[in-house]
Amino acid sequence: MTDLVSMPKNIVPYLRMIIEQMGSNDEANFAIYHLGFKWGKETVEMSGEKSDIDELKTKTVLTAIHSGITNFDVDINETIRISPYDSIIDDDFFLAGYAAGVVSSLLGEYHIAKIRDGYYDVVKSEKKIKSGLFKEKEKKEGIELENLKQGGSYLIVDDSKDAQRTFDAFLDALQEGMPGLCFTRKFPSKLKERYPEIDSPIFWLSTVDGTEEVKTIKPKDFSDEVTKISSAFLKMKHGIFILHGIEFLITYLEFDEILKTLREVRDLNSAEDGIFLLSVDPEYMDEDNFSRLENEFEVTEKKLGKKMTFIYNLVFWAEEMEIDTLKSYQLISRARDELKVGDLEESERLLNDAIECIFDPFVTALEKDVHKTEMSEHGSLLEKAMDAKEEGDLDEALSLLIEYKKTLEDYRCVL
Fold first, then answer.
1. What is the pLDDT of residue 316?
2. Which helix (H) or strand (E) holds 91?
3. Which CATH class is domain 148-300?
4. d(CA 187, CA 193)
5. At the top level of CATH, which class does the domain 11-124 belong to?
């Protein structure tokens, strides 16, 4: 094999830090994965090696050893399972990309790596992916412009990275001639690259200093700046404005402070007949705070958003009780994707499957965990939850189970 230049171990964490500062964790994951893929692919191409499936295990292991980046255990059955060890780079996205690049180049067919717990499933992709780890879903039902009323403030359940449904609604309004204003976690040039139709002022939510070209709002200035800018915009333009990046703000500010600002901006919007779109990803917000936002805004998909938050809490509790939650998480993740593209029916079906998957193991664990005195005081709620599930009313079963768990925790706090 040709001698190769090994990857300095501090390069990947440094690159990740820079990308996260300029964009988001998701963007960093994407970039690091594809850096790993390119490194793995180039490693094989420099060696001139090719392989069939029978030789793949041996050649993948040897390629990894020769690179000096990691060692691989390889198991080939229905999928190609690769487990890294003794790696100088501690980043799953880089190593997963590297594994996919090595396999793709050896076999001459494009493969992707799916990150599992301690290993990667490397599978053949039917179509080379141009802009993400996974093939984009076909766009489905969005937010209809005619459903957004002047003076209205709307919470839109959306993806924290792209907020596609929120931006699509924003663009529809711009195309109808409404003036626009944008507060976003997306870097302005990247946002305009994706949505070239946006000619509105863009303010980037970030911790870095702004420039003449890039106007930034730091978390510590969020309240004053957003209120001031929104007020001036609404009084002059009476247009539509968007806030994307509340998940970022929560990492720096108390939620009460954020909520106070959102209330002020909502009231300004009502008085000036604008339209305020707030993008929120329920995966990054606890149930109580999400519920508080629901109480302040008109909410699209309110029922499903709240149901999803309930199930996340249930799965979190299940993990604390050492219940296997992998399948439930996978179902919730798929439901979340469907919700973001507006397929409410499919989203609810997947959420119901997640409830079915976790419900019985959770109840069994609770029954083992509680004392007889607790059961006598609160057991009726658990029995009602089980009855509701038997009758097919999963929403009621979920609600009762959540109520039972919280009541039990409150009871134990008193003791």
1. 76
2. none
3. alpha beta
4. 10
5. alpha beta
Greatest extent of the chain over all pairs of C-alpha atoms, in Å: 73
* pLDDT in the model for residue 127: 36
- Domain ranges (residues) in the chain: 11-124, 148-300, 314-414
First to last CA, the chain: 68
Per the CB < 8 A criterion, the answer to whether 91 and 106 are in contact is: no
DSSP 8-state symbol, 86? S
pLDDT at 300 over 90: no
Pick from 268, 277, 273: nearest CA to 171: 277
Q: Is the pLDDT of residue 220 over 90?
A: yes
d(CA 207, CA 257): 18
Q: For 48, left (φ over 0), alpha (ψ -120 to 50), or beta?
A: left
The chain-wide mean pLDDT, for the chain, equals: 80
Q: How far apart are CA 20 and CA 199, in angstroms?
A: 25
Any idea which of 79-83, 88-92, 257-261, 316-320 has the lowest mean pLDDT?
Answer: 316-320
Q: What angle do CA 312, 19, 117 make, to 5 degrees?
A: 40
Record the tokens describing residue 21, joined without a space: 């500062």
The span from the CA of 347 to the CA of 188, in Å, is: 31
pLDDT digits (tens, 9 = 90+) for 117-163: 888 888 875 433 333 333 333 333 456 666 688 899 999 888 788 88
